[in-house]
Each structure stands twice: as C-alpha cells, then as structure tokens.
Amino acid sequence: MIRRRQALVKCREDALHNRSQPVLRPVLDLPAPPRILDPQTPVAIIRREHLVQSVADALQFISYYHPLDYVRALGRAYEREQSAAAKDAIAQILTNSRMSAEGHRPMCQDTGIVNVFLKIGMNVRLEGFDDSLEDAVNDGVRRAYLDPENRLRASVLEDPAFARRNTKDNTPAVIHVQIVPGDAIAVDVAAKGGGSEAKSKFAMLNPSDSIVDWVVKTVPTMGAGWCPPGMLGIGVGGTAEKAMLMAKESLMAPIDMAELKARGARSKVEELRIELYDKVNALGIGAQGLGGLSTVLDVKILTYPTHAANLPIALIPNCAATRHVHFVLDGSGPAEFKAPSLDDWPKVAWSPSAQATRVNLDTLTREEVGAWQPGQTLLLSGKLLTGRDAAHKRIQEMLAKGEKLPVDFTNRAIYYVGPVDPVRGEAVGPAGPTTATRMDKFTDTMLGQTGLIAMVGKAERGPAAIESIRKHKAAYLIAVGGAAYLVAKAIRSARVLGFEDLGMEAIYEFDVHEMPVTVAVDSRGNSVHQTGPEQWQKKIVSLKLPVSAA
Ligand code: SF4
Asked: What ranges make up the beta strands (E) of 49-173?
C-alpha cells in the first residue's frame, strides 16, 4: 500500500510538472485539453505505457504458462483416467505444458485471438493517451505477438467476410470495457484458440425449457475440435449478446470444482455447476474425444436478469490451451507476473511407447495403411507434407482448371497444421494439428485425384469424409490438440514446397522423427470418435466409474 501511495504521489507530481510520458504512436497535433488536477483528490494515474507493457507481458506469460489451477485439475484427471487413449492424450498435454513453461515457447500453435476485459475505476486518471484505450491495448498485443524472443502466431484476419487478410500482428483484440467504482483498473487478458471458439453455442430457450437438458444435448454436437479436457463457460439470461459475453467472461475464473464439491453447493448456480459437470463427464467423450472419464474440468456460470418471455443461454468451451491471467493497475507501474514453480506440475513425462508401431513415411503403401487399426498408436518418421484450408482450396481450384500441382502427393501423408514461426534455431515453432473437419469438403478430391493416402489432424471427421476415406482405402490420424510444442520436437527440418505466398498456410515438407499419432479413421471407415465415447459412456454407467471427482 505504501509503495502504491508513493507511486501515486510520484505520478501526480509528474503530471503536475508536465513531465513527458512515453508515447508509442504519432501524436496528433491538437491542443492539449485543460487539465484539472487536485492534489488532494485520491486519483490513481494510469499511464498508457504501463497498460501497453502489462498487456504485452500478460500475453507472453500466458502463451507458455498454463494457469496452475488448470495444471492441477488436469493432473487429477490424469490420475483417475482409465481409458488408455485418453490417458495418453492427457499425458502429452501435461508434458507439453511443462516443456512450454521451461522453454518459454507457446503451448499451442494457435496462439489465439486476444480477449481483454477492462474494469476501470471511476477514480482513475488515464495519462499519455493520445489515442483510444483500444489502441493502447492493441499496441500491447502487437508488442507481444512480434516479440522476437518468443514470436507468437498471428491468426487474426481483417475483412472477414471477403478478403480475409492477415493483419500480421494479431491485432485487433476483442475488448470489453466497464466503468466501475474504485481507483484501479482490473484487467483480464485471454488468448482464445480458434478451435474452441468455433464450438460456441447459443440458444433462445423457452422459459420452461431445461438448461441441463440443453447443455447435455449440445456438448456432443461440439465434437472434439475444442480439444477437451477443458472448461465450459455458460451465460444464462440477459439478451442474446449479454449471454454470450457472460459465457466468455465466466471462463476467466480459476478452476475450483474440486473445492466446490468438497465444501458443497451454497447456491442454485453452484448446484447447477456440479450437476452439469457430472452429467457432461458422464457422456464419456473424454480427452480429445477418444472416450474417457474427463471431458470437462469445470463448468462456470454467470447469470443476469432477462425478459419474461426469454431464457437466453450461451455456451463457450475453453480448450487444453487454457490461457488467461488477471492483473490490476493501480498507478504503481506495470503489472508483474510471477513465474510459477515447475515443482507444481504433476510428475508426468510422456515418451513414445515401446508398443507403438513405427511407420516409415518414405516407403508408405496403401497396403500398409490398410492394416492400421482404429485406436492404434503410430510413430511417424520420414517426410510429411503440410497443408490446411487455403492450400486445399487452391489445390481444388488448380485441379478443376487442369493445372499441375506444385507437389506430388502420391502415397504421401499430409498434416493439417499452421505452425508458429521458429526462433533460436528451431526447425519449426510449436506445430500441433488443426481441426480436420474444415478439410472435409476437400477430402474426396484429395484422395481421389492426388494419390494422397493418409491425413493427420485433430478431432473427428464428418460422414462424407469418412465415406471418402473408406472408398479410397486411406486413413485419418490424429495428433493431440494442445500438445504442439511436444509435437514440434519430432520435426527435424522444414522446407516450403509450394504456395509460399500463403505464409503459415503454405505447403511444407517436414522431416519428422517418431511423431506420435493415433489412427482415428481406418481404411474401413471405422472412427474412434464414434466408438470411443459410445463405449465409455456405457462403461461409466455399467461400472459406476468415478467421473464426478474433480
Ligand atoms: S488446444 Fe486446440 S482449440 Fe485450443 S488453441 Fe490449441 S488447437 Fe486450438
């Protein structure tokens, strides 16, 4: 408190003596507004540079440090998991988490779109802002994502309906501002993955409808593209947009389901959280949708009064790359982020299994692919092509025009990935799988016209893609979403083979060594994302398995 008061006094003195403040943007040549400063008034002076640096530091921090509440809850999920496939996936996520924390590199290749919640105290004075509050936050985003020591992936596109141009620095953030009583600014900064954001749901229920029924019916429709185990954020009430905002903001709270269950619910909302947590986990979806005991580690709910005719409900999942941090600016300087102790990570160290099947991609044949079984663990070595949405679209257009492709796909495997740029001598930055269903509409063309025989991505495939895989006797493999740094360690070199102008979406050739994947759809069209959850849902009921421990 003393330090803070001293800082406030110093800030006021600086302001009174009109000392120059750091300015990052061109200053408009406008007359300064008259300033009325009363040294007796307890006003916290928050400088622009302090906000910018705090946002930048927060984003770097959360790119490689999971919140400890997530790590601990995932460690408990690992302990009680009985599905071998799900347990292996959780082990990869935990090992990846620790590696990211040690290496200060992103835990996932999708380093997110930035969400910021600012609660600004009415007794705060903003200093050095020649532009908007949003501009300052975006300067912090830019500074974080372009940091040469740990460059983060720029995933934000402007002109979303048409040109979809990458802004190259991940700006702008999505920013929410509230004016509240007090003399500080409270900030929540999150980096939200596109895969989990894509599974957001909203419904305008009838007032007599059941919230529990809607959530339990809706979660299976989300598939595994949101990279469970994670959290569900739920907003109930208000209007359509208020419900969505509450669902997102609810995810900023720490995971405390174990504590809640231990002490018991003290409100209707807490009762509902527990009921939803138990019922969603009893669905058997499990880590990465492979079937298992832990689909969600917590369920958060915020509510708001609503119209008598409405029951708006929004659901937003948070994924294995749960990334958010809270800090307060009170005028004493930029926020400080204390590095967690690695001793707090569970003692889980994933390594390739001796039982896994070693596959040489350089000599791969359709017969070998045909022998793979659903759920089988493979370790891929050799040359692996990459490509995702934009490359697939262009390939399809070129084939339609009869043009020659820049790459021969015959008897090759393709990895759906958009890696982070490398730093410090890396072959490639974190490079986990992206959601495969986005490539479903290109699958028949790729398998039927290019000679491709295997695909690697994350989460389930749709019915048409599965039928195409069966028809062409190909296979679909999954890598663990949220284990991108661990996967990247299997990549020895990378070179661009085609479509260089697409940046991270270009076609690369990776040289991989023992990259871990699981057979998700075999050449007969059997999908582990269908069989796994079905089996585990039945086992949970018949064996009374303990999904309810947090
Ligand atoms: S863990 Fe999955 S959903 Fe989350 S950011 Fe990574 S790839 Fe996207």
From this structure: 113-121, 124-127, 157-158, 165-166
Tokens 């996936």 belong to residue: 89
319 CA closest ligand 1 atom index? 4
- Listed in sequence order, the residues at least 6 apart from 269 whose beta carbon sits closer than 8 Å to its beta carbon are 301, 303
Gap from CA of 154 to ligand 1 centroid (Å): 14
Residue having the nearest C-alpha atom to atom 3 of ligand 1: 195
For the segment 416-428, the average pLDDT, to the nearest whole number, is 90
Distance 110 CA to ligand 1 centre (A): 6
Give the pLDDT mean for 79-85.
93
pLDDT band at 503 (very low <50, low <70, confident <90, very high): confident
Atom 5, ligand 1: which residue's CA is nearest? Answer: 193
Distance 243 CA to ligand 1 centre (A): 23
Residues 6+ apart with CB under 8 A from 244: 200, 202, 235, 314, 316
User: CA-CA distances (angstroms) from residue 485 to 64, 224, 455, 476?
Assistant: 10, 20, 20, 22
Q: Per DSSP, what are the bridge partners of residue 375?
A: none
Count Cβ atoms below 10 Å from residue 400 Cβ, excluding itself: 10
Radius of gyration of the chain (CA): 25
Ligand 1 centroid to 260 CA: how many Å?
A: 27
CA–CA dist 449, 314 (Å, integer):
42
Model confidence band, residue 544 (pLDDT cutoffs 50, 70, 90): confident
Cα(111)–Cα(290) distance, integer angstroms:
24
227 Cα: distance to centroid of ligand 1 (angstroms): 6
Output the CA 13–ligand 1 centroid distance in Å.
Answer: 46
What burial letters (b/e) apply to 104-142, b meaning 16+ CB within 10 Å? bbbbbbbbbbbbbbbbbbeebbebbbbbebbbbbbbbbb
CATH 3.20.130.10 residue ranges of the chain are: 357-533
Q: Which of 110, 288, 323 to mutate to test the pocket of ligand 1 (most atoms within 8 A of CB)?
A: 110
279 touches 220 (CB < 8 A)? no
Which alpha helices (DSSP H) does 128-176 contain, by range? 133-145
Neighbours of 487 (CB within 10 A): 27
Residue 128 pLDDT > 90: yes
CATH topology of domain 357-533: fumarase (3.20.130)
- Enumerate residues 6+ apart whose C-beta is below 8 A from 220: 283, 285, 533
Q: Which atom of ligand 1 is nearest to the CA of 112?
A: 5
Helix (H) or strand (E) holding 327, with range, is strand 324-329
Please give all residues whose beta carbon lies within 6 A of any atom in ligand 1, as ranges. 108, 110, 193-196, 226-227, 319-321, 432, 481-482
**d(Cα 325, Cα 512) in Å, to the nearest integer?**
34
